[in-house]
Design goal:
With about 160 residues, this protein is α/β, with parallel strands linked by helices. The chain contains 6 helices and 5 strands, in the order βαβαβαβαβαα.
Length: about 160
């Protein structure tokens, strides 16, 4: 069986924490789809296509033997509908802290009601990335702080360009 995993998120911007989860999720599936979501409630700094391009660029650097192929796609609408359209068997979610667990627990229960055939797999964030959140990275960048430990050089450049404008 060809195992397809889906890692959804807004990735505004993609952080080293996201890339850590992607790198580890690639070991669990044959194909990993990164669903870059539209979530206007989060008021993204980067337009959807820029986020897709950033994630695609960062994932292109992660090639290696024995690892899943990665596809980066814009994601619209309900997660479970998108997962079904992608023929995903697994939804990958990253956990950082207790508050993540509470939210994810509720979402997983709802998703299971929508499609019990798609499993949700949780990966704990690496200790180095447990405090990293896109929202905080944007705030630090907007206030002139150093975001080097939290994002790749290309993402850092894109963030600094946004805040210079």
């Amino acid at each position: 069986m060809h195992r397809v995993g889906l890692y959804p998120g807004t990735f505004d911007p993609p952080t080293n924490g996201h890339l850590d989860i992607i790198g580890r999720a690639r070991k669990l599936v044959d194909t990993l789809i990164i669903g870059v979501a539209i979530n206007e409630a989060k008021k993204p700094l980067f337009p959807l296509q820029e986020r897709v391009d950033m994630v695609r660029s960062e994932c292109a650097k992660m090639n290696g033997p024995g690892l899943a192929d990665i596809k980066v796609m814009p994601m619209h609408g309900l997660l479970m509908k998108f997962a079904e359209a992608c023929e995903a068997h697994i939804i990958v979610r990253g956990l950082r802290a207790v508050q993540d667990f509470e939210y994810e627990f509720q979402m997983t229960a709802m998703n299971e009601q929508l499609n019990p055939d798609i499993e949700t797999v949780f990966l704990m964030a690496d200790v180095r990335h447990q405090a990293v959140a896109s929202r905080l990275v944007k705030e630090i960048a907007s206030l002139g702080g150093d975001i080097t430990p939290f994002v790749t050089p290309d993402v850092k450049r894109a963030l600094l360009e946004k805040y210079e404008k």
